[in-house]
Batch of 3 targets.
Target 1
Amino acid sequence: MTAESETVVEAPAADTGTAPQTVDVDRALEAIFMVADEPQGLVALATAVGRPVAVVRQAIERLVDDYDGVAPGSVRRGFELREVAGGWRIYVRADWDELVRDFVTTQNPSRLSQAALETLSVIAYKQPISRGAVASIRAVNVDSVVRTLLSRGLITEVSTQAETGAILYGTTDLLLTQLGINSLDELPRISPLLDDGSEGFDETGQVR
């Protein structure tokens, strides 16, 4: 990977309202990765920072080297920039998975918000389901809520949707433990609580 850097570049015209006059590409990408809950493709990233794909690819290579402790003067970080499902996203480095899992499940046990509970319910009953589908059902943006549920270990990425590349989420064994049940089959049936049982559920109340 190259260590050459052309980090300060001209951004898109000011009238776009999305970027400052000059952009440090490496730092701009870092900022995007910090809030992205799905892998981001090179074209989408290039569009976001207003630079050619080749420039973004070189910046990502520099970031990977930096986080891995390969670049001169850098140290190996507790996170890594990983290519997954045709895109890039920051993940906890595998060396620290157990520590982070323990932290989010035992050391940071604050209560979930109502929004998080509603999102978790949708995922539990409709899994595997994409973030976009959850947002459509709840009619609100669920990006931050999904990140919270992932950090708590209550949901996980189970697969990728073949048609769109969207990540599909499902619940974890930790949720079963928290609910005190052995399987998802023990979740209460939803149909009796709805006007009719047709919206995503069969007549018995189980998820279709």
Target 2
Amino acid sequence: MADGCKVERVCERRGLPTLPERLVERRTETGASLRALERFFNREVLAAAMRAAGMELLDGEAANVHRLLTAEDVSHAARTEARDRLARAGVDVDGVTDDFVTYGTIRTHLRECVGIETGRETGVDADAVRETVYTLVGRTEAVTERELSRLAETDAFDAGDLTVSLTARVACEACGEEYGLRRLLERGGCGCRGAESQT
């Protein structure tokens, strides 16, 4: 079955031999949802394509570019800009998006290639919560950019084409550490609870 599985084919083509194993680990060890695994897989595929083109990836950059390419709330201008940036770097954007999978493909892979029964999913989907936060930040950026453009059409504000990028900071009152929002979400918290349990 693996020979006909899109997950396996894409991983082989993109040079991601351990990605199927990481999908299984996320499913069995952390209980990641199928939709969370879909996003994880597609971001890894995008990151591999960006690295293969010689792009240097900053922390969380592949996730942000994936959002720009796929999220419904992203403006046409922002999506076009993201696609153009990838194309200029030598990334075959259509080829990459064709390699993206759906959660149904992930389910089929887990069931038929690995033998993991997916069943009905319950509980809080941490990745879905993260995605909601990313979407809200992206929507805020898009709205702010749109309103600044409107303001630039008046005599009260003089500016050229503006691109808005918001950086949220989150401080933990328990341990006093401060993190960028995206970094905090991707590392799974600040870790102060774990530190307290060891003292």
Target 3
Amino acid sequence: MQVNLHEDERIDQLYSKGIQIIQSKDVFSFSLDAVLLADFVRTTQHRTKQIVDMCAGNGAVGLFLSEKTAAHITMIEIQTRLADMAHRSVELNDLGQQISVVNDDLKNADQYIPKDSVDVVACNPPYFVNYKTSEKNPNRYLAIARHEITTNLNEIVSSAAGLLKMNAKLFMVYRPDRLTDLIVALRSHRLEPKRLQFVRPRIKEDANMVLVEAIKDGKPNGLKVNRDIITYDGDDYTDEVKKMLYGTNR
């Protein structure tokens, strides 16, 4: 299907998923964290019926998840331009029957999706606290995507907990230096961390991302820490990451 593009937009493809996505160097382009999160999310073929992609940006995570589940996916994005990009990418991939795009604040999520009805929430949130002294990108779109300007960690976790069924799951990608904040927020909203996986740029380098799975009203403790994902082998992607990106180890 053909869609209209703005002058600053292009169409990229995640070859491993066969998904095309509208991107913009001036507005938003997905990063590896979106690919890692979509790969980390676990769904069950018959039990997973409703998925929500929070802080959806241009829709990368939700679009990538569409290849691994038949569940309905609702993307929620507060920035109108990004939500429009996501909507047009849904049309581009002929996924209108499976994916809906909501352009609104996460605080209003329950106006579109009933509480306690969702099986999986995935979220690639803004990573950085919005301190007055924080150095932010002068590009407003990118500043909102990276800093907690329109939402914050507690609001995100609270919204996710409100939508999820009992024993349903939240999957997030985050920064290791805020992992303590994340775990405290999860437990304060009845979400028990159950699986954690660090991502390191190279074997001998510190982790720069962490993937976390939590269960609503799950039993305390029992956290499993998976082996680390290594992004690069020298200057090239590792075979594991190549498979996520291209579907092969090329």
